[in-house]
Amino acid sequence: MTDNDLMQRSPHLIRRHRNGKIGRAIFFLSTTIGLVALIVLILSIINQSMGLVIVRYTVEPATLSDKPLEDLESTELSAILTQRLKPSRLRTIERDTPLATLSRTQLYNLVMEEIVVPKVQKSFHLDESLFQRAKIEQIASEEYPGAHITFRSWINWNFIVGSLSKSPEIAGIRTALMGSLWIILITIVVAFPIGVGAAIYLEEYASSSSRINRIIQTNIDNLAGVPSIVYGILGLAIFVRSLGDLTQGRTVISAGLTMALLILPILIINAQEAIRAVPNSLRQASYGLGATQWQTIWHHVLPYALPGILTGTILSISRAFGETAPLILVGASSFINKDPSSLFSRFTVLPIQIYNWTSRPQDTFRNIAAAAIIILILTLLTLNAVAILLRNRFSKRV
Amino acid sequence: MTETPFPNNAYAIELRNVDIFYGNFRAVKDINLQIEPRKITAIIGPSGCGKSTVIRCFNRMNDLVPSAHLNGEILFHGKNIYDPDVDPVQVRRLIGMVFQKPNPFPKSIYENIAWGARVNGYRGNMDDLVEQSLRQAALWDEVKDTLKKSALALSGGQQQRLCIARTLAVRPEIILMDEPCSALDPIATLKIEDLMRELSTQYTIIIVTHNMQQAARASDFTAFFTMDTDRAGIMVEYGPTSQIFTRPKDKRTEDYITGRFG
């Protein structure tokens, strides 16, 4: 048999194929491990975010009205409030916000908070609720006689639009969600133009042989790896303290600017990569037609690099959205009821809210923390989806 | 200067004692070259002899390489284009360039033509200019129904003719071509050569080529470059193409011409 025989596979070739298969198996395994880890994580969060609860009402809702409370009109709800509440408590509430000015949902929440006062005695995870129903009923009848077992999804509309409360049953994350969105908006508005501008300067204008430019470049590369808490200290020193007269201290704008600082290095590096990936032939074509440097950058380099720049922006926004440490330093409030309404409002953000809740001893706070995590992830996915849609629009124009 | 039968500005462009450096490396030394107007001048020579370097200095494209600089003079209408008061942007509008690899913009065919004219402040009827430029580049019949389609969907040869049309649309006086056919098949190459012949009635064309048959077929004048002992490019011989290819004066020219294809 000769070496040229097609049917003859040499031991060497067999070994090469075997090595290839081993490599392939390893890569497949690492992908699978990553995927499994992600699925387990998400399942465990969902598992905590809904399930059966044993709940006890201070006042049974059925004694308040013939109809279910959810179906009542504003007038009926305020009637219940005026009848059932202690006059002193009613006066306190009226002094803050007259009942007549409240919406139906707000009235409903008031009735639930002030009169019905549901107290979740014990909550169960989704897996227990599905597979160990009998055991839960036994616990309920033995330990909490007279209590109800109901299914409760801790993620619900009231949770999203509700404001913060000390009792987990009625606590909502609107304030934290608004805080997160305000801050991320400021972060993008500030960091995107500065970051892209710096990247253009460094890639298109700055000469790489200049010492100062090399120092700037090295610094940006290193700043991308600085721990976020350091940016928090920086933000505290600059925006909260030194510029306190302008930012009014621990406000949304201080937090947004701190976050912008935090993501700037990542954004610049990503934008530089994207600009560097623009083929030189495109620049030459433009210069060859008698275009100026600015026309070349604005009409050809930037549009070509934009999808890449937006990818980098998506990554940095995701990072900023989940960031906690610097905002604690800059002064996020740990308990705040008032939504941010301007650049100079006090604020809290979702990650901080989650962090607060997970550190409470009661089980139910862990349930709403899980629910808040899901909202955080969903919001992030939505933001990214918008950015990706934008990116696809830009890259399709070619 | 050995022989200048015409005053300076009778040449389309003229190199006088040009040295080009990349950093400390002298890539090309002491080039003296007078380009005849409305003729095709080919620059030939082995790889690394500085042909592309030289053609890129005609419209200051070398400025884009940070380490490149030039000694000597390049006279265009009697003015040295490397004088400090000359704007390279203006030079490049008057002296257009077609590159080795077709590099249309990732835009529509129409936009590819219109963009250059627009940034240079063209105020006429754009549709007419696009049609006229495409006709001049012998591309109109192939693309007249797909002007709004992406230029990247064209074949390599069509893309290169589009790049020529794009250059024509800004109304240059000289067109530089840096190995314009090296990425094209023989049929597309012949089309470009026919086109060059056509255009040479109105424009001065300078072409760098590796393909000696192309130089022999398509050009009126030929400059032969080679590498000197210090790796710097030098111009060995320059003259009418027929003379360079049939009766070269220099031994090195003869070796090159006969050695490769003899």
Walkthrough of the structure:
The complex is a heterodimer of chains A (398) and B (262). Chain A is mainly α. Chain A has 2 domains: 52-172, no CATH class; 175-397, MetI-like (MetI-like fold, Orthogonal Bundle). Chain A is 68% helix and 5% strand. Chain A has helices spanning 11-49, 74-84, 87-96, 104-116, 126-131, 133-143, 157-161, 174-205, 211-223, 228-242, 244-247, 252-276, 280-288, 293-322, 325-330, 350-358, 363-396, and strands at residues 50-57, 118-123, 148-153. Chain A has a 3-stranded antiparallel β-sheet, sandwiched between helices. In chain A, helix 8 (174-205) crosses helix 16. The longest helix of chain A has 39 residues, at 11-49. Chain A is globular, with a radius of gyration of 29 Å. The two termini of chain A are 56 Å apart. The model of chain A has no long low-confidence stretch (mean pLDDT 87). Chain B has 262 residues and is of the alpha/beta class. In chain B, strand 7 (174-178), helix 7 (186-199) and strand 8 (204-208) form a beta-alpha-beta unit. The interface between A and B is medium-sized, with 21 and 29 residues.
Order of helices and strands of chain A: HEHHHEHHEHHHHHHHHHHH
Order of strands, main sheet of chain B, comes to 6-7-8-3-9-10
Radius of gyration of chain B: 18 Å
Distance between the termini of chain A: 56 Å
CATH topology of the largest domain in chain A: MetI-like fold
Structural category of chain B: alpha/beta
Distance between the termini of chain B: 34 Å
Total beta strand runs of chain B:
10
Neighbour order of strands in the largest sheet of chain A: 2-1-3
Radius of gyration of chain A: 29 Å
Strand content of chain B: 25-35%
Helix share of residues of chain B?
Answer: 25-40%
Give the largest chain-chain interface (CB within 8 Å): A-B, 21 and 29 residues
Uncertain residue ranges of chain A: none
Q: What's the story with the biggest beta sheet of chain B? A: 6 strands, mixed
DSSP strand content of chain A: 5-15%
Reading off the top of the CATH hierarchy, the class of the largest domain in chain A is best stated as Mainly Alpha
| Largest sheet, strands/sense/barrel of chain A | 3 strands, antiparallel
Give the CATH superfamily of the largest domain in chain A: MetI-like
What would the principal axes of the Cα set say about the shape of chain A?
globular
Class from helix and strand fractions of chain A: mainly alpha
